[in-house]
Amino acid sequence: MEDSVDRHLARWRGKAPYDELVEGVVTRMQMLVKHLHQTKAAALAEVGMQDFEFETLHRLMAHSGGATPSVLAAELLLSPAGMTGRLDTLERSGLIRRVRSTDDRRRVDVELTDRGRELWTEAMQIRAEVESEMISALSLEDRVTLDGLLKQLLHNVESPH
Amino acid sequence: MEDSVDRHLARWRGKAPYDELVEGVVTRMQMLVKHLHQTKAAALAEVGMQDFEFETLHRLMAHSGGATPSVLAAELLLSPAGMTGRLDTLERSGLIRRVRSTDDRRRVDVELTDRGRELWTEAMQIRAEVESEMISALSLEDRVTLDGLLKQLLHNVESPH
DNA sequence: GGATAGTATTTCGCTGGCGAATGATTCGTC
DNA sequence: GACGAATCATTCGCCAGCGAAATACTATCC
């Protein structure tokens, strides 16, 4: 079995001081994520939604439909400025609502509108299909293994140092 | 051991029809790639280079320093328009050179300049460090396993249907 | 051999995201 | 209890990428 990264690495062999394994893992992850992004974008377009919109609604739902911009930004690995931009778009589309917090008036609470909840539900189906399709190549056991390894990596990256 | 995705999934448990394993794998990959992107961007900035520049130079090197825009675009999962933009930037910075092909004059050959080769070499060090740092959490054996699993996924996604 | 279809690249207008600076509010400390 | 530092969100100017249309060239077909 061969993928495009194999071909890429083969072209490289011997030409540079180069850890093929590291490069392989990294490049494959990047391409998978990029593929996923593009496939989901195409699928979600049918409901008239963009990936970043779903991503945001989804995080909001995880917070029971309400959270502050800074929390969302941190979780989505987004700059504060980028978050504001997203929320602007979502608000204009009527999917979220901004409410100035009463106890700490620096804060803004972001809430899902009914329409936002609806759209999220629709998108869930579509997205789940696309993601499952990608993972379908692996047995249940392999999925667990993969998940575990990725978790080690992410933990390492997230823990201070 | 716990990562941010664990916490995210925990918040979700029972609230939605939801394959935790699929979501876990997908989300972790996305976050790792995003992290990598940000870390590399920060590291490469020291040489005054951006990630997309390196990515392009690197592909070019893999083609022994010369390739056409369309080939590069395909390999980098980029639109033709996006590729043109990248090449414009790289050309302005003096890292690549465009040469109209003589036999088929619709074609353009993209070549690395000496400066491009130099900068690529510098960047290779930096990038390798960042990537290795990320992978360092895994034993050699685990790396092989991870790489194999990712390869299965990518192969599945790339093979027609 | 001239119209037609096809291919490679570029141009154009638009969008999401970033970094830095700004405005608004709260906290800490003396 | 007031002043300076920290915190939260937004605005601004900029940039890389996309989709669609335009441009430039080649191949095909009658």
TrEMBL record, chains A, B:
The keyword Transcription applies. Keywords: DNA-binding, Transcription, Transcription regulation. Coiled coil: none annotated. Pfam families: MarR. Residues 18-155 form the HTH marR-type domain. GO terms for molecular function: DNA binding; DNA-binding transcription factor activity. Gene3D superfamilies: Winged helix-like DNA-binding domain superfamily/Winged helix DNA-binding domain. The keyword Ribosomal protein does not apply. PANTHER family: TRANSCRIPTIONAL REGULATOR, MARR (PTHR42756), TRANSCRIPTIONAL REPRESSOR OF EMRAB OPERON (PTHR42756:SF1). This is DNA-binding MarR family transcriptional regulator.
